[in-house]
Amino acid sequence: MMKRALTFGLACLSLLSCATNEPEDKPKPEPPRLVGRIASIPPDRRFVLIQRYGQWTSEPGSILTTRGADQRSANLLVTGEALGEFAAADLQSGQVELGDAVYSQHIPKPPPASEPPAEASTPETPPAEDVKNPQKTSD
What we know:
Radius of gyration: 32 Å
């Protein structure tokens, strides 16, 4: 009877210790945020001008998404070119029309991986010249 109670107690403790481990705090991605609208589409349809709503900055190479009528969507690649309230983006995929909503979703960059410590390098010493070299013959 005592053995059963001890086994049961140890099992409960091990389950409790597993249950109290908190998962790692991973940064939660923010929901998409409305940042502007499609203001201009040149005839070649390779890039668009976005009229920005308020101040927002996106790094060149960031991806923006658009939503239009009939669930139409597109992916835009931020070029980094901006003038006043307008910013340029390259059309990557999908279809855009004037007035389509432009959304940005901030995805936090992972923390930099800790680099392994640099190995201690041994200074290279040039080989010492042998005063007496048995292979050399003297004249």
